[in-house]
Design a protein that fits this description.
- It is a single chain.
- By secondary structure, the chain is of the alpha/beta class.
- It contains 24 helices and 23 strands.
- Strand 5, helix 3 and strand 6 form a beta-alpha-beta unit.
- Helix 4 packs antiparallel against helix 5.
- The radius of gyration is 27 Å and the shape is elongated.
Amino acid sequence: MKGAILLLSTALSIGASRGRHATARAGALESDVRVAGGMGSRTGRREGLGGSNGGYLSCPDGAHKAVRKVDIVIPTFERDLCSTMVQAKSLGQFVDRGAFGKVIYVWASITTPFEEFRDDYNDIQTHLNGLPSEFYSIHEFFAKVAEHDASTGASSIAPRILAEINNHTETEPYEGLNGWQLQQIVKLEASKLVFSEYYLVLDAKNWLMEPLALADILDECNRSLYAPYNGALPRDHRFWFEASKKALGVQVNEDGVQGGVPLSITPITIHTQTAVEMINLLHTRGSSVTEAIDHGATEFMLYMSFLLSDESRRARVSAVSPRAVRSTTLWKNSLESLLKSGEALDKMEAHFRGEEEPQVSGSRSRFCAWGNCKFVSLQSGVTKMIQDLGGEAETLGHELMSFVHRRLNISTVRDVCVEHHNSIAHLPKSLESPIQSYFNTERAPQSVLILQLENRVRGHVPYANRVNRVYAERHELMRFKNSSEFMDDAFERYPPYWAKVQVMVEESLRAKEDFIVMLDSDAVVSDHAYRFDQLRLFDDPNVLLAAAADPYWNAYPLRMTLNAGVVVARNNDEGKALLREWLGLYEKNQHGAKVWKRDVARNVWSCDGCSWGGPMYEQGSLNQLFHADGQKRIAGAEMLLLGNPHLESAYFVNHYMGSPWDKRVETLQGILTKYGAPLDDSEAKAWVKARKTELEAKTLAAADAQPA
């Protein structure tokens, strides 16, 4: 991940034994304190433990007689800023102000400066609708952790992380913690900075759908509620559980725990002092949260292992309850598995309508129908996957999102992000200069090879291919090739993001053309009057490669970031060398460990812990080169010239990232009609079917070739 924002509610209490901020706690307003049985629907009294006979609560010794407002901790990152805004709107709408404290955002990205996203925090504050909030950069956060640890004499991981932050530069790949690990560390180390007895941890994808009160997370004795997993832990969670117990040196019998062990997922309510004690135990064992997570533990399994290893501790601060916050998440990987088994639509429908509680993801005991959940979550990429299914699945997906829209009283999720700087709606709509000024038409035409690579066969792809082929055929010294016409085995050797770089390298060695252009499957030449080889960017002979400014990361003034969806390269010796240098970063940036893995049977590549668009991806690596060489060999083009994301406008090249599939087809057919080459729908469907068959055959052949 590229980074993370952590929503931390600062009312979290550290506990009297920590010996800090005692004065601040003593001066807390009475309105910030909740006495057991004295808020909302809670009844009874903590005093006079008379049991059920006298109508009094019988709470364990050591249970909190009173708690301050509970704070909320939510990790997110650049790519999830829109989700964070939707979540902020849900919190602003449904959170009980009398029970919950501040929401604090901590920018947990080392590779991307928080300053580039400060305006987004202002938008999030607006959506919180008056909920108190604060924001820390990752440097500020760990500086405070270091300050706390120094004041208590505790061992600390903060100096190491601060050193890594200070030593990191934009031109060198970051070799430290990945985004997921960093988020986990922040979630636990946050226990040292908050003031309430408990804090609620969420992820950015958790959207609140109903009013959230203290009774949803604490019982009548002010103990945190949790819902155990009903059955043997899934494989990944069991591995994390075992690794966490080993790191802590504790014994917890999964079968012997009352009700079972919860999964390592959000939402979870953490007892602040217990988290601090757990971190201290790791240090006494010569370890740390960082080291434990690096060896397979997770933040929540560390916490739960420590909590459950001592029965008296567990009884004081936690309680098993079916009343624990009910939530559900539809995970991309789970949906992919259901698609493979052919059960996706039935499972989705049963889930959404509440007819059953299928194991799409999450705990059975926590699983709930969408209309009956406190929190619902869609992992990034799931909505696109549902849309790609088409037919009934797409209809169900629209119904599902309509439910979210109704609950949050919004027209669409995109509307919530309309003020967000990464929103296409707020990108420039017109070029800074007349289109003709970007081309040197006095320069004699040179030869151009246009390549279009796609490993995902979607309905718009045959139309995009046709548009680009028609463009090439209209011009002399141009030719066009799509995936069926060059090396498809690049997908077997490289992830699809890197396969296009590999194809450019190999085609450059055999092609005689002066320029090579690589287009993503959603990129087209929308105005056929102009030529790539006559771009004024190449008036400078030192410029070997050009790409458009990325529309999502260039609303910020600090630096230009390129998008790798449209790349134009000189095919001379220097240009070939630059392409090889770019491809070489695939190996270099893996730091000796092959983080990209291919599931041959499913023909799916995955990158564990990688930051989206970071150095493990072709786009992040291109930007490494771009920023490192002073922008001499690589030129950044105006976004609307080589990567216009708007469906309604056409200057030269459009890159329709993030736009609806049906609207893409409509727009592309309009371009084809303009140039007298419309594509018949039946022909497009036949192309898609043939291409899918071709890719499936290659996948089966690759799987058969694997050793038994």
